[in-house]
Amino acid sequence: MPATMLTEQVTDAQLSQFGKLIYERTGIRISSQKVSLLSNRLRRRLRATGIDCYTRYLSHLKKLPPNDPEWDAFLQEITTHETYLFRDAGQWDWFQETFLPEVQAAARQGKRSKSLRIWSAASSTGDEAYTIASCLAGKLPHHSQWDIKIVGTDIGVGALEQARNPRFRERAMRRVPETYRRRFFTKSRDDVWTPRPELAAWMSFSQHNLIQPLPGKPFDLVILKNVLIYFDAASKDVVFRNIDRSIPRGGLLMVGPAEGISDIVSGYEKVHTWLYRKS
Ligand SMILES: C[S@@+](CC[C@H](N)C(=O)[O-])C[C@H]1O[C@@H](n2cnc3c(N)ncnc32)[C@H](O)[C@@H]1O
What we know:
By secondary structure, the protein is α/β, with parallel strands linked by helices. It folds into two domains: 12-78, Orthogonal Bundle (Chemotaxis Receptor Methyltransferase Cher, domain 1), CATH 1.10.155; 89-278, Rossmann fold. Helices cover 43% and strands 15% of the residues. A seven-stranded mixed beta sheet has the order 5-2-1-6-7-9-8, covered by helices on one side. A two-stranded antiparallel sheet has the order 3-4. A hairpin with a 2-residue loop joins strand 8 (268-272) and strand 9. Helix 1 packs parallel to helix 3 (54-63) and helix 5 crosses helix 6 (127-139). It binds S-adenosylmethionine.
């Protein structure tokens, strides 16, 4: 790590330029209360990169492509990847006890094919995607006859790298039901849990910024949790419209308990405070 003598204090004008760049690239709005936090974190990035001036670091960032490791390190300073398996238990009860039986009944009655596409938007290190896979493996009978795709996306390349090579610590596993732990995960001697290959076979992870639409086929269910808390109303609206393009009529959108999008969700029936069905 290069040592840098950083004597300069970041100015309000520079902070607002960083805030503008973050907003343009990600939709994340740095609130005025968080500005002092940003200045400490910027200082860390300058030290790590060996750049001794805030303006130079800003122009450096502007030139980098979104998948550059420095963008990832910078975004890590302003977002959190906090996640764990079976977060918000009630939603996973609904997934197993209502959603999967309904999907299965519809397939039995010939009203749909035996295929299921689920998108974990803002998947972080993959804990949500592996929760989906555990529920499917546990509660969808004859799942080997189904064409199942679980797509995880996130803006953070480091988080995605971990999602592709999942190694869950006890903290991330603390809410996983005992039977699922035993059936679908293997614990190594260093107390790390690895999902069985049958779960990983359904997954794909890729980098995607929610302020852009995701190309490709629509999904039966989109899970968008604990990410829009960083966004202002305008960028929440942009994200909702992009997500909406990936949901067909009758498709479902599951959000986090604190997502705060009830005002902008239009064209959907509210099934729960955290669940919407496209009309
Ligand atoms: C707190 S984690 C949520 C993980 C998981 N959905 C959950 O609820 O446990 C938030 C994630 O949102 C991602 N994120 C933030 N802004 C994003 C954007 N514009 N596009 C895609 N992902 C973004 C972050 O990288 C982070 O991994």
